[in-house]
Amino acid sequence: MAERSDAEGGATARPGADAPAPLPALDIYRSLFEHTINGLAFHELVLDAEGCPIDYVFLEVNAAFEKQTGLRRESILGRRVTEVLPGIERDAADWIGRYGRVALTGESIQFQQFSAILGRWYHVAAFSPARGCFATVFSDVTEHKRLEDALRESEQRYRDRSTELGAVLNTTHVQLALLDRHMRFLMVNDAYERACGHRREELIGRGHFEFFPNEENERIFRRVAATGEPFYVEEKPFEFADQPERGVTYWNWSLVPVKDAAGQVQRVLLSLLDVTGQVAARRAVEELAAERKRAEEALREADRRKTEFLGVLSHELRNPLAPIRNAVWLLDRAEPGGEQARRAKQIVQRQIDHLSRIVDDLLDVTRITRGKIDLQKGRVDLAELVHRTVEDYKALFTARGVELVQHLGSLSVWLDADATRISQAVGNLLQNAAKFTERGGRVEVAVTREPHGTALVRVRDDGLGIVPEILGRIFDPFTQGDDSLHRSRGGLGVGLSLVKGFVELHGGSVEARSDGRGRGAEFLIRLPVAPERPALRGPPRTAVTMRRRRVLVIEDNLDAAETLRDVLLTWDHEVEVAHDGREGVEKARGFRPDVVLCDIGLPVMDGYEVARALRADPALASCVLVAVTGYALPEDQARAMEAGFHRHLGKPVPMDDIEAVLAMEPQRRQP
User: Fold this and answer.
1) Angle, helix 276-333 to helix 339-369, in steps of 10 degrees
2) Measured between alpha carbons, how far is 188 from 210 in angstroms, rounded to an integer?
3) Whole-prediction pTM value?
4) What's the Cα-to-Cα distance from 386 to each of 205, 260, 424, 483, 537, rounded to whole Å?
5) What's the CA dihedral at 497, 500, 502, 506 to 10 degrees?
6) Are 248 and 167 in contact (CB under 8 A)?
7) Burial category of 117 from C-beta neighbours within 10 Å (exposed 0-12, middle 13-18, buried 19 and up)
8) Which of 123, 176, 607, 661 has its CA 20 to 30 A from that of 572?
9) pLDDT tier, 178 (very low <50, low <70, confident <90, very high otherwise)
10) Strand, helix or coil at 526?
11) What pLDDT, on a 0 to 100 scale, did the predictor assign at position 10?
């Protein structure tokens, strides 16, 4: 080892026969050295001229050493302890004498030492890896020492609660109990007494497990008493056998053995902290985080489905527009009244009907979602209703080459239901079956009465079937059974959602079954039946003869205004047209119409303002105000009624509805 000298003439041991050997394998054990929880340091003695130890130098220290002493490695390596810790001279002789014997004789020692410089208690073990060098392994036992002192004092004075220690123990919220090695209570503080539900007088002198039997906890207690090793556990669940109403509680446990001078465990300090509230709070936060994650995933899925739906909607709207445009081109060139013109007009009518169904389905989905559908219930024979619906769709199945078979039985099955909505639900199932059954396939429709007052409508096909990943959400709005690019099956994915909505509004349920792709599908509608008697039919309505009317059309869409005017002129009515709200009000004051057909989304003045203006004019108080608009939600209808309209018609309006409002009698003028 290289010679070291100082102002006092001291030198380190010289290499030779009795010189210290190199430190053993430091590099090999570097990982163990750095990661042990105990402080570890290697030192070299500084000897005087006579070979007596007068100081020692820091050769290497680990991270635990830095943590426990507060000394930084880079500031102490290569330096003497008397330089690193000024003022250590008053107890340095004791330390250096002990460590010198270890380094020079090879003996190992253990002791506890209070460092006046660092103000801490340490348990120290020293050994010599090579002559002239020594290593120290130590732990900061200040808290343990403080606890031992406090426990010794508490054992002497635990009955006197007026002492300072008693006051401290009884003001803490931590539950503390001191037990002997046989697990009998020697002392408990107020917090423990409150938490366990037993008075101090009941506990002292009796065994812990008389009150709180638990085999696992008893094994832990006895292991601590036998081995002297402390035990710590966080959030340990526990149930009080004698207090089941408390349910499961959660505790942070600490078992600290208290030893005598010979190292034998004499006492065990049990400390408990009830963390049930914290556990519940953390779990609530975790659940909120999980809920937020689910919500974010749902939003992402909703956004994906919205984007997909908009693409599908564009596809479904453009498809009928193409034949309409082609038919219009043909009508310009075909012989009026000829076969080609007749076919073109049929195409236009079919495609308009198709577009109207798309819009109606979207509105119905919105109404169901928002609870805005009012059922027009009456006594309905379900078997007869299903039969009529099947007859309406026979042509569709014939055109597709699919066999349609009915099993409706001979008995009536009566419901209190909205016949239109139930027919729509069954019709949607039939359309779906026709769409997904190949030519030559078979669809069966059956109506039966089940036990417990339930009617069953069953629609079964042997078509393409439903894959499992779709089956679970087949009734969700905009779910597509055909996700291929060409979308040969068509549809917006709202038909089955409407079926579910209409059926549930009647207090029923709908179920889908399929064994997978290519295995067909089956849909079952269950509805509550009514007593077996038909409702009395009211007298038939008398048809109203339509008279010639003065009609004002207020519509900013030129094509819509002109075509409606031509229809009205065909019926021999007197017609005026205005293209914005203000013009409409001015024409009404001069024209004095019997009926006003008014759009809502108008420039200058909207339709609501027009209605209020006309209703405020005494000269126009008797005219019939009809909203003809694309705003067709229930709240739009209510707003139109509030503004003064007598009727609300959603575009595109069937001509029968136009005829009906023209047949309405003029309203009597209010006095």
Assistant:
1) 170
2) 16
3) 0.41
4) 83, 93, 10, 30, 20
5) -170
6) no
7) middle
8) 607
9) confident
10) strand
11) 43
CA–CA distance, 82 with 300 (Å, rounded to integer): 67
CA distances from 222 to 204, 242, 265, 383 (A): 19, 23, 11, 78
* Cβ neighbours, 10 Å, residue 506: 20
Give the closest residue to 235 by CA, choosing from 246, 251, 248.
251
| H helix or E strand, kind and range, residue 280 | helix 276-333
Dist. CA 463–CA 157, nearest whole Å: 89
The number of CA neighbours under 13 Å toward the Cβ of 467 is 7
Give the pairing of strands 550-554 and 574-578. parallel
Q: Is 27 strand, coil or helix? A: coil
pLDDT of 307-359, one tens digit each?
766 665 665 666 667 677 777 887 888 888 888 888 888 878 877 776 776 67
| Position 32, amino acid | L
Torsion angles phi and psi, residue 140, rounded to 5: -80, 110
Which range of 124-138, 552-566, 567-581 scores highest in mean pLDDT? It is 567-581
Reading the block at residue 319, the tokens are 């498809």
Contacts of 90 (CB under 8 A, 6+ apart): 116
DSSP string across 170-210: HHSSSEEEEEETT-BEEEE-HHHHHHHTS-HHHHTTSBHHH
Q: Count of H helices and E strands in the chain?
A: 22, 22
One-letter amino acid of 409:
G
Q: Helix or strand or coil: residue 35?
A: helix
Please, which contacts does 643-651 make with residues 24 or more away whose CB atoms are closer than 8 Å?
A: 643/607, 643/608, 643/611, 643/612, 644/611, 644/612, 644/614, 644/615, 645/598, 645/611, 650/363, 651/560
- The confidence score (pLDDT) of residue 9 equals 41
pLDDT of residue 670: 42
- Residue 296 confidence (pLDDT) above 60: yes
Letter for the amino acid at 588? A
Contact between residue 422 and residue 506 where contact means Cβ atoms under 8 Å apart: yes
322-354 burial, b at 16+ Cβ within 10 Å, e below that, comes to eebeebeebeeebeeeeeebeebeebbeebeeb
The burial of 519, by beta-carbon neighbours within 10 Å (0-12 exposed, 13-18 middle, 19 or more buried), is given as: middle
d(CA 44, CA 57): 5
Taking residue 236's Cβ as centre, other Cβ atoms within 10 Å add up to: 15
25 Rama sector, left if φ>0, alpha if ψ -120 to 50, beta otherwise: left
At position 61, the amino acid (one-letter code) is: V
Rounded (10°) CA dihedral 320, 322, 325, 327 = -70
Are residues 579 and 555 in contact, defined by beta-carbon separation less than 8 angstroms? yes
What is the rounded distance in angstroms from the CA atom of residue 154 to the CA atom of residue 149?
A: 9
pLDDT in tens, 370-395: 666 677 788 888 988 898 888 878 88
Per-residue pLDDT, 266: 86
Reported as type and span, the H/E element at residue 55 is strand 53-61
Distant-in-sequence, close-in-space partners of 503: CB < 8 Å, separation ≥ 6: 425, 509, 510, 525, 526, 527
> pLDDT above 70 covers what percent of the chain?
79
- 417: nearest Cα among 331, 526, 530, 493: 530
Average confidence (pLDDT) over 188-201: 81
Query: In whole angstroms, what is the distance from residue 114 CA to residue 291 CA?
Result: 54
Coil, helix or strand for 416? strand
